[in-house]
Amino acid sequence: MALSDVSFRTLWLAAAALRIILLVYGEWQDRHFVVKYTDIDYLVFTDAARHITQGESPYNRATYRYTPLLAMLLTPNIYLFQAFGKCIFVGADLLVGWLLHRILTLRGMPSKRALLYTSLWLLNPMVANISTRGNCESILGCLVLGTMYLLLIRHFYAACACFGLAVHLKIYPVIYAAPFLVLLDEKYGLPVNWPNMLWTYERLRIQVLRLYLDEDEKADDVLAEDDNDRLDNLVDKSSRVLSRALRHGLMFLSPTRVSFAVVSAAVFFALGGLMYSMYEDQFLECTYFYHVTRKDHRHNFSVWFYHIYLTFGSNEDNILGLLTFFPQLVLVMASGFAFGKDIFFACFIQTFLFVTFNKVCTSQYFMWYLCLLPLVLPSTKISFRWLGLCLIVCWVVTQAAWLYFAYHLEFEGENTFFSLWLAGLAFFGSNCWIVVELINNHRFENVFGASGRIRWCWGNGEPKQQPSDASSANNGHMVPPSSL
Amino acid sequence: MATHTVAPSSSFHPHLYTNITFNHAPSRLDCIFDIIYIIPREAFVDINQLNDLKISKHVVVLNETDLEAPVEVAVRGGNVVAIRYEADDYLMLLGQQISIDLPLHMRYQKPDSMWTHQTVTIPTPKVGWTCLIDPPQKSSSSIPPLPTIDFHLERDSRTTFDEIESTAVGNMTVSVPVGRTDDIYTVQTGTFVTVTLGSLWIAYSLYRAVVKRKRTEAKGKRRKSE
C-alpha cells in the first residue's frame, strides 16, 4: 500500500490495532510468565484506586505520588476490569496522534505528508509499549498538546482549563507558562472578549505606561544637559534601566496574558483545593513537594545521580540541591521566552532541557518531549544523512552504554558505579549536542502571522483547500487595541 | 526440616529460597505454621509484590515500610516477614515439599573508602508451629498472633513457638556494591565541569539563535507564509 493510498483514518486504525494486540499480549504474559509485561507503576495506580474504593486515602499505597484524581479515574480497574486504566492511556495515546495530525495540517502541511510525522508517534513501538504497559504519560501529552491546539484555534478558556489540569496532574508542564504567555501577544488579536474588569485593568495599564514613558524622555533630557557628576549619572542610568525593565514588564502583562495566568491558576488551585479538602497535607506532600525536593540516590540517567549518592545526607547535599536547579531553571526559562512565538519548538526545547538537567531522569520522562518531536522536525534543516543519523546513534549508543553498566550493577552485583557515572556524562553530553544542533538548525516559524492567522509554514494545505479555510481556525478573531 | 538459601549472592535483587517438607503435624488444629524471616535493615521486602505473588493466604510484613530509603535513613530497621499456613491448609499439603521464593531488595549502602562491596548477612529463618497457650473458644476463628522472636516483635505471652529444624545451605550472605568515597572529588569536579560546559554551550547557541532572528526581522524580510 503506497503512502498516497493511506489516509489518517487508516493510520489511526493501524495504531489502535497495534495497541490492542499489545494489550491482549500483555494480559497473556502477565498470566503465564514470571516477568510481567505490566509496569510496576500501573500496579501502584491500581492499588491506590483500590484504597479509594475502600474509602481510604490513595496515599496508603506506598510510592503512590500522583494526584488522587488519577486514582479516582482508575477506580473502574476495581469495579470493572483491571486493564481499564490501560485502555484510558491507550486512548490518550491515540488522541495525541490525532492532535499531532490536526496541528500539522493547521500549519499548512498536506495531510499525506503529515501522516509521516504523525506515524513517528502512532506507529512508534516504544510509545505503544509504554502506554500498553500502563504508564500514564500519554495523558500528560494529551493535555499539553491539547492546550497548544486550543490556543491555536482560539478556544481560550478551554486552553486555560487544559493547562491548569495538566499542571495539577504533574507539575512539570508549568514550564510551558513562559512560551504560552509569549505566544499570547496582543498584536495577534484578542482570543476572547475581555470582561469589564480586564478593560479597567487595561485602562490603568495604559495610564501607568504613559507616565513611565514621559519620565524616560525627561531623564534623557537631564542627562544631555548635565553629565559632570559620575555618581549622579550612575544613579540615573540605574533608574533608567529599572524604568525600562518595569515598562517592558508592564507591556508584557497584557490583559490576555493576565487572564491566561489567572484562569489557569484558578483551575489548578480549584482542583488542588478539592484534593486538599479530601486528603490534606498528604496530598501536597506526595503530589508536589516530593517531586520538587526529590533527590534519588539510586542509579538513573541523571548526570547528578552518583554525586547525590556519594553526598547523600551531608551538608553538601543541600547546596547541591540549589546548584543543580540553577542551570536547569535559567536554560528552561530562557528557551521558553526566546522561542515562545514558535510554541512547539519552544516547548520541545524546554522539555528536553528540563529532562536533561533534572536531578532524576528515567525512561518515561522521554515521552514528555517525544510527543512534541513530530511538530519540530518539519522546521529543522538537519538532514537524516548524516547529521540526523549521528545524533540518533549518539543518543541510542550512550543510553545503551548506561543500560549495560546499570544492568551489571543491579542484577550482577558488580561495582560499576564509576563506569555508570561516565556513561551518564556521555549521555548528558549527547543530549547537549542534540539540543545545540536543533537550535542551530531550526527555521524559526511564528505560529501566527501579522494578521493573527495561523501561518502556513509547512506547505500550502490540501490541494483542494482554499487559503481562506485556514481562517476557520481563527473564529472569534478580533481587531487588537491600538498600539501604545 | 527446612532448608534455606540466598541467590544470587551478589545482586540488588536476590531471592531467599526456602524448601520445606510438610511432615510435622500440629499439636492442635488452631495452631498456625509460621516461616519467619528476619530481614536486616540493609534489605527490604515489598509487601505489594508479595501480595501479588500469592505465596500464602497469610503474609505479614512488619517494621520498615519505606521502599526507597538508603540504609542510613531506614530508621525503623529491617523487616519481619511471616508466611503463615493455617493447620487445615498444612494438613492438605502433608507429605509434600513446598518451595517458597521470597524476593528481597537491597538498599543502597553507605559509600566506603576501602571496599567495593558490602556483605549483608541474612539470618536463617525460623520455622515452626505457633499455638495459643489458652485454646480459643470454639466459635472464634482468630489466627494466633506472631510468636515472640528476637527483638523485632513485641513480647507476646499468649503464644508458644514449637520450632522445627531449619538450616542454611551455603552462606546466607548477599554482596552489595557500594560507592567509593575516593571518587567524590573526581565525580564532583567532573559533574560540575560537564554541566557548566554543557550549559554554556546551550546558552551560547540560544544567544546566537536570538541574535540571528532579530537581525532577520530588522532587515524586514518576510516569509511567503506571512
TrEMBL record, chain A:
It is a multi-pass membrane protein. InterPro entries: PIG-M. Residues 463-475 have a biased composition (Polar residues). One of its GO terms (molecular function) is GPI mannosyltransferase activity. Pfam families: Mannosyl_trans. Its EC number is 2.4.1.-. PANTHER family: GPI MANNOSYLTRANSFERASE 1, PIG-M MANNOSYLTRANSFERASE. Belongs to the PIGM family. This is GPI mannosyltransferase 1. It comes from Umbelopsis vinacea.
From TrEMBL, chain B:
The keyword Glycoprotein applies. It holds the Pfam family PIG-X. Keywords: Endoplasmic reticulum, Glycoprotein, GPI-anchor biosynthesis, Membrane, Transmembrane, Transmembrane helix. It is found in: Endoplasmic reticulum membrane. GO terms for biological process: GPI anchor biosynthetic process. The keyword Transmembrane applies. GO terms for cellular component: endoplasmic reticulum membrane. It is a single-pass membrane protein. Signal peptide: none annotated. It comes from the Eukaryota. The chain crosses the membrane at residues 185-207. Pathway: Glycolipid biosynthesis; glycosylphosphatidylinositol-anchor biosynthesis. Required for proper folding and/or the stability of a subset of proteins in the endoplasmic reticulum. Component of glycosylphosphatidylinositol-mannosyltransferase 1 which transfers the first of the 4 mannoses in the GPI-anchor precursors during GPI-anchor biosynthesis. Probably acts by stabilizing the mannosyltransferase GPI14. Belongs to the PIGX family. This is Protein PBN1.
